[in-house]
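Section 3.1: Structural characterization of target chains.
Under the original work plan, the team committed to producing a structural model for every single-chain target entering the pipeline before any wet-lab resources were allocated. The record below documents one such target. The sequence was received from the expression subgroup and is listed exactly as submitted; it comprises 280 residues.
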Amino acid sequence: MAINLDVIGKSLETPAFSYDPDTLILYALGLGAGVGELDFVYEKNLKAFPTFAVVPFLPALLNAFVPKANLNMYTVLHGEQKIILHKPIATSGTINTSLKCDSIYDKGDSGAIVNLSLESRDASGDVVFENRAVIIDRSGGNFGGDRGPKTEKIDPPEGKVPDFSVEQKTSVDQAALYRLSGDKNPLHIDPAFAKKGGFDKPILHGLCSFGIAGKALVHEICGSDPSKLKSFSVRFMNVVFPGDTLKTEGWKTDVGKYIIRTTNQDGKVVLGNAVAETIN
């Protein structure tokens, strides 16, 4: 099944995404938030976690781009994700997202690397947030294309103690709950599908791990004020399984800038090459 290279440089308008307070609360619960984070799970003084920006991204990707680009869902993995926040996410509304395929690179037997950029606007036309995503189709390489540039490696400063460290043990049911925020890829729930994809059992959504790390950022470097997070980018380094313990650490490198790393209970890096920026 060959990738449709005609999508490169093209923009797709995707169906409008409407949400309400229950949508935000369900997303927060899917990240493991509880009554200790009341402003994110109770409608009285409700706030949206900034990483909710990825929720409208998923239907745009799965329902609009994947079939158009002819990607193989059995072999698709999420490589990188970045969110850029332009204004606080309202507690309800309608989001309109345009998606553009910036490039597709040929990594041979390692697959095809698809670079996407998305811009999401509210009903008034204001940009609320942007997404940048790298999608890997492991079966899509060897089409004779450009291999693309090497990506910058970003590591924590060697020998320096992190400025913060937060652990969260995920639930064995984490993926079953998180998928209700829109990522219905069977890879995260169906054991037979996961085996076809090369995994012994369903894996946790990369964007759930992203959200868990983002939740730590909100509390640790934003004073639990989600409006202070400006951007957050990660590379998905290794898979996470429901029930794993995730430790997110951050090293301040400049005013409002942090290098972030998330590891599992075995010390394996699951989110790396990660950077967060805050508004000061």
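The longest helix spans residues 54-69.
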